[in-house]
Specification:
It is a single chain. The chain is of the alpha/beta class and about 350 residues long. The protein has 12 helices and 15 strands. The longest helix is centred in the middle third of the chain and has 14 residues. The radius of gyration is 20 Å and the shape is elongated.
């Protein structure tokens, strides 16, 4: 039997990038570039003719920008899209908007000074395109339609939970927003590790802050105390851990080696919570490719923490949550729309 090859359409106005992306993708036997397009209008016609499994889409193009094309595509014919983005402030804002619209993930656009520039990113590009071909597309559409969760004044943190840890990867930027924007403003401190490029982390935290009743910030310094009603997002190139100093919890940043190929790593964050807080913590692992976070969640569970994992139906990519469930680290399996209620009920006993 012949192996199925995922069909890819490359959309980019640069002939150089079209060539480089094509060469990178076709270096893998499971991928076949079935077409290229220089602008969204050409892409639209080729989609009709060749019905690709995945599209790689440049953000900035003539005639129609990538965001407007993505909006049209997700409304009329949803399919997996990987954005090709510049690692700049503008590129970060536009890419985060693309993920909100429905793009599965993004890869950075390297310098076009040489053919080796994009080759350095080849493994990431190939793996993300293959992952996107199997992703659940369109999961973000209903996430933000759920009502906010409120609490009565008589409710209080009966079990004394001190910290909540949330970990995510592919699909996580919108999954995290779908959870955090529904939470009341007086939750225990929440620490977040999302696999994201360093240049995108600050804009991501600010985007969450605008959407939430909680105060969201990127962790930028050592000894940042964990405060009720605040969310702390790991920077894009350092591990975030929670440390206990004389009964007070603080954020700690580490430049130690990547874990499961990631820095920041969800495993590192969860493990630190297990060690410093134990049973007075809650851990939830959300959508993502791979297995990062699964071992750390198991460690939390073994110390008496309350743990949960996102279910397959609502995950863009059911990798990290699946492994956590298989290892026995998740006490509950939840649809994304159930996570905010789960957290509030755990803390306040609604």
């Amino acid at each position: 039997m012949s192996q199925y090859r995922y069909k890819v359409l490359v959309v980019d106005d640069s002939p150089l990038y079209r060539t480089l992306i094509r060469e990178c993708l076709e270096s893998d036997s499971e991928l076949e570039v079935v077409g290229v397009a220089a602008d969204p209008y050409e892409a639209r016609e080729k989609i009709k003719k060749i019905n690709p499994d995945v599209i790689t889409l440049d953000v900035e193009m003539p005639k129609m920008d990538g965001i407007q094309f993505l909006k049209n595509l997700m409304r009329l014919r949803p399919m997996p899209v990987i954005m090709v983005s510049t690692l700049t402030q503008h590129g970060a804002d536009v890419t985060l908007a693309a993920l909100e619209i429905g793009a599965v993930d993004y890869v950075p656009k390297p310098s076009a000074s040489s053919a080796t520039a994009i080759t350095r990113e080849r493994d990431e590009l190939v793996s993300k395109v293959k992952m996107a071909a199997q992703a659940n597309v369109g999961q973000t559409k209903s996430w933000h339609k759920q009502p906010n969760v409120s609490i009565d004044r008589q409710h209080y943190n009966r079990r004394g939970y001190q910290v909540i840890g949330l970990g995510a990867s592919t699909g996580g930027t919108e999954a995290l927003r779908g959870v955090l924007e529904r939470l009341p403003p007086h939750m225990p401190p929440i620490v977040v590790t999302q696999h994201i490029k360093a240049a995108f982390c600050g804009p991501f935290a600010k985007r969450l802050d605008r959407a939430c009743r909680l105060q969201v910030e990127e962790v930028t310094s050592e000894r940042m105390p964990l405060v009720q009603g605040h969310v702390y997002v790991a920077p894009g190139n350092q591990h975030l851990t929670v440390v206990n100093r004389q009964g007070h919890l603080y954020c700690h940043l580490s430049d130690s080696d990547p874990v499961e190929r990631h820095r920041p790593s969800v495993d590192v964050m969860f493990s630190s919570i297990a060690e410093s807080v134990g049973g007075k913590s809650i851990g939830v692992i959300l959508t993502g490719m791979g297995r990062d976070g699964a071992n750390g969640l198991l460690q939390m569970y073994q110390t008496g923490a309350l743990t949960a994992a996102q279910d397959q139906a609502s995950s863009v990519v059911w990798g990290m949550p699946r492994v956590a469930i298989e290892l026995g680290g998740a006490a509950k399996t939840l649809c994304l729309t159930e996570v905010a209620n789960f957290l509030v009920e755990a803390v306040y006993g609604r």
